[in-house]
Records
---
Amino acid sequence: MDVAQALEDLLEELAAIQKAVGKLKTASVSGQELRKRIKDAHKDWLPVAGLLETGTSVDASALQDVSSAWTAMAKLANSPSPKKQYKALLKTIISKTEGEVLHKFIKASAIQTIGDSLRRLVQPISDSELLAYLDESIRCAETNCVRASVVLAWCAVAHRVHKKLASLGITTLNAEFARMKADNGLLFRAFKKDYVFSTETDIQEAADAHLILLCRFLTYLDDTQYKHLKAALDLRNGCGHPTGYVPDPVKLQAYYADVAQLVLLNAKFV
Amino acid sequence: MLDKLKADFDEIIALVNKAPASLQETAFKMILEQWFNANASPKPVPPTSTASPAAVPPTGPSGVLDAVKPFLTANAITTEVLEKVFHPTGPGAQLLASSIPGTGKATKLVSLSLLLCVRQALESGAFTCTLKELRELAVHYDCYDSANFAATLKTNKNYYKPRAKGADLELSGPGSRRAGELIKSIAAGE
C-alpha cells in the first residue's frame, strides 16, 4: 500500500465529508448515507493506521490521538448525533493527519531513501579518509540525524581543502595568504588576518571560511562555485552550533550535491 | 577554431536575420552556443579515481545531456539561463530556486512538478518525476496540500502524459513549454 497516497485519499474524503456536514441544515447528522460514508472512511483508515503503527516514521502519541478521534467519530455515526461534535472531530483528524502524520511520514520516507541518493552522489570518490567521513555522515542521515550528517560531510570537505593547500608547501601557503591579504579585490578586501603556519597541522587551526576564500583566490573555484561552497559552509555552521534550524532531507541532498561537485570530485582539489 | 568561426559567421548572421527582429538576439546567442558546443574541443576529462564503469549518458561540452538539448533549443533556453535555475546542469542537478513561482499551493505544486521533471532530465535524460519526490519537495517548499494533491495534478493533466493513478509524471508537449517558461521566469528573477 502507498501510505502517502492512501492518506491523501482519506484527507480528500474527509474534506468532502466536512463540506457535506457543514451544508446540513439540521442540527444533527442523521442521514444514513452520510453516516455510512463516515464509517467507510473509518474502515479505510484502519489498515493505514496499522501500517503506521508498525513503523517508526510517525510519533506514536500523534497516531494515537488521530486514531482516538477516528474511533469517536465512527461511534458518533452509529446513531444520529450533533453536527457540532462531528465538526470538532473532523477538524482534529484533518489537521493532525496532515501535520503530524502525513508530513512526518513523507519526511521519514525521504530519510529512508536518502542513503542511496547520497551514496550515488559520492560514489566516484576513492580516498579512504574522505570515505570514512562520508560513510559516517550518510549513516547519520539514515538515522534522521541530519545536522550531524551535514557536519561530518563538511569534515570530508575540510580534509580535502587542507590536503590541497598543504600540498603547496608551507612557505608558499604563507605567501599566498599574505598576497590575498594585500589584494583589494571585492571578495578579498575584507580579509585582514595574518596567518603564519609552521607545520601542516597548523592549517587545521585556520578558519574554514578563510581557507575556502584562499581556494577562490588561487582560482581553484570561480565566483559562483565559491558562492555555493560558502553557502554550504554556512549550513555546516548552522548545524554545528546550537540553533533552531534543522535542515530537511531535501536540503541535505542539495548540500551533498554541492560539496561533491565543488570540492570532493573537483579535479582542481586533487 | 577561430578560422572556422570566421568562415561560418556570415552564415550564422544570415540565419539570425531570418528570425523576427525581437528574437534575433536570442537566436544569435543560441546558434552561437550550439556552434561552440559542436566545434569546441572537448574539455580534458579529470582523472577520476574509481568511477564505476556504469554507462554515462552522452553530454556536450556544457555538461548538459544530449537528450535535454532539444528541449532547451525549442524553448530558447541558453546554458546561462539554465544555470540560474539548476546547479549543476548535469547529473546531480539541484533546483536552485528558494521559492517556487505561483500564487497558491496548487499553482506552486504544478510548477514544482514541471521543474522536477526537467531536473530529472538533466540527471538521466528522461523528463519524469516520481510522486514520492514531488511530495518530499512540496513539503520542503511549503506547497503540499495533501487533500488536493491528486486533484491539482488531475486539473493540470495536459502538462503530463496520460498515466495511471499513482504513476510517475512525465512531461507532455504543453508541459515542456510551461516548464521552459518557468525556467526563464525564475532565471529573470520574476
---
Amino acid sequence: MEASTATAPTPTREARGGARERTAGRLLDAGLNGYAALALLYLLAPIAVILVFSFNDPRGRFNFIWQDFSLDAWTDPFGVPGIGDALGKSVEIAGLSTLAATCLGTITALALVRYEFRGRAPINFFIFIPLATPEVVLGAALLSMFLNFQVGPGFGTILIAHIMFNLSFVVVTVRSRLIGFDRSLEEAAQDLGATPWQTFRLVTLPLIMPGVVAAALLAFALSIDDFVITYFNAGSVVTFPIFIWGAARVAVPPEIYVIASMIFLFTLAVMLLTVWQQRRAERMAAVRPEPEAV
Amino acid sequence: MAARIRKAGLPYLLLLPGLGWLAIFFAIPLGYMLFESLKQGTVDTGFVFNWEFSNYANAISAFSKQFVRSFEYAGLATLFALVIGYPLAYVIAFRGGRWRNALLLAVIVPFFVTYLIRTLSWETILSDTGLVSDTLRSIGIMADDGRLLDTTVSVVAGITYNFLPFMILPLYASLERIDPRMLEAGYDLYGRRRDVFLHITLPLSMPGVVAGTLLTFIPAAGDFINAELLGGPNQTMIGNVIQSRYLELADYPTAAALSFILMALMLAVVVIWARIAGTEALLGTERRER
C-alpha cells in the first residue's frame, strides 16, 4: 500500500474524493488534454499551411487561395530572381556573426562566472539590457550612429549589428551552463602541472562545449531569422527576410513557401538526428560494462 | 605583487572584447540616438543639434494613439499567450510522460520557419477568400462583407502566435521544476485539485509566468511586422511609425524620440516586473557557483 502511494498518487487521491469529484476530475483531465491539443494545433497549423501551399499553383500574385496541385515551385525553388542570392547572403551573415558572437560571448561568460571582481552585478545588468530592448530601438540606435559618422549601411553594418544582438544571447546561454560547473576538475589539472591555457583547452572547453554549441545554434537561428535590426542597417543589401518583406507587398510566389518548407524540414531532420544520437549515446553508455571487467 | 595585480586585472581583460563590442555598438549608438532626438530641422534643410526637447512632447502628442494601441495589442497578445500557453505547458510538464520531448519539439517547431513567412502564412489563413473567412461567413458569425485581415483580430492573432513559444518555454521550465512530492503533500492534506493548483502549482510557477509575460510583451510592443502584413492603416503600431519615420520619411529626430520613449516604457515594465519577481530570477544569475 505504501509503495503504491509513492508511485501512483492519482488513484489515492481519487479514492479519497467522492464519486462526484472523481467524475469531475476525469472530465477536467479530458478537457485539459483537449485544450492542450487545440493549443498545439494553433502552433502547428500555419506550418502545415506553408507545407501545403508550397504545392499550390496560384492564379494571382499572392499565394492565398488553393487552386491546383503543382510541383512547379518545388522543381525550381530558386527560379524567382534574387531569392537564391538573398538566401546565400543570409547564410553568410549568420555564419560569420555566429562565429564572432560565440567567441566573444563565451569569453565574456567565462569571465563573469569564474572571477570575483568589482562591478560584476552592473555588468550582468548591462548585458541583459539589449535583451530587454525592442528590436526597432536596437536597429534605430545603430543607424543613428552610422548616420552621424556617414557610414553607408551595407554588409559590414549588418554583420556588426548581428554580432551585437547575438552577444547577449550567447553570454546568457553559456553562463547558465557554467553555473554549477565543477571547478575542482580544473584545480586537479593545475595540480598535475597543466598551464592555464592547457587547462582551458583540455578541461574547461570540452566541459562547457554543449553550452557553447547550444549558444552557437541559437545565434545562427536568430541571425538568419532577423528582419527588424537588419532592415534598419542593410542599405541596399538584400537578405532572405528582407527579400520576403519586399515580396509581401508585391507578390508572394509559392517558391517562398518551398524554401521555407525546405529550411523547416532540414532543421527538423537535424533536430531529430541530434536527439536520436544523444539517445543512442546514452543507451550505449548505459550498457557498456566497466572496462576492467572485460 | 605584480603577478597579483595582473591576476586581478584578468577578468577585466577577458571582458574587454565582449563588453567593448556592446559598448561601441549598443551603448554609444543610444547616445547618438539621444543626440539625434534633440535635433531640429528637416532632411532637406539639414538637421541641427539644438536641445530640441519639444521633439519628445510633439512625438507623444502626435503618436499617443499608436503608443496606446501598441500596449493594448501587446497586452492582449500576452494575455492570450498565457491563457493558451499555461495549460499546454502544464500538460507537457505533468502528463507528457515519454512524449515530453516530442511535445516540446512541437512547441518550438514554428521557430524553424522564418518569422516573416510564419506571418505570411497567417495572411494565407485569414485571407478574404480563405477557409477561416469562408467558414465564419457560412455559419453566419461574420457578415458577408466582413473581413479578418486588416483588423485588430488578425494583428493580435499574429502577434500572439509569433511570440507564443517565448511564453510556453519559461512556463514549462518552471512547472517542470516543481517537486511532485509537494503536490502529493497537498493531496495528502485533503486538498482538492483546485486548492493544490492555487496554493502550490501556481505560486511555484510564478517565475515562469513573469519571465514568459516579459519575453512576450517586450517584443510584441515593439513589433511592426504583424501590423504591416496582417493589419491595415487602423492597426498601425508604434514600431510602424518608428520604421517609416526612420527609413521612409527620414524624420530622424521624431523617430529617435519615439524610440527613446518606447525604450523607457519597456524598461519601466521590466523594473516593475523585477520588483515582483526579484532581479535574480530575471537576470538568470540566481545560483552562484559554490
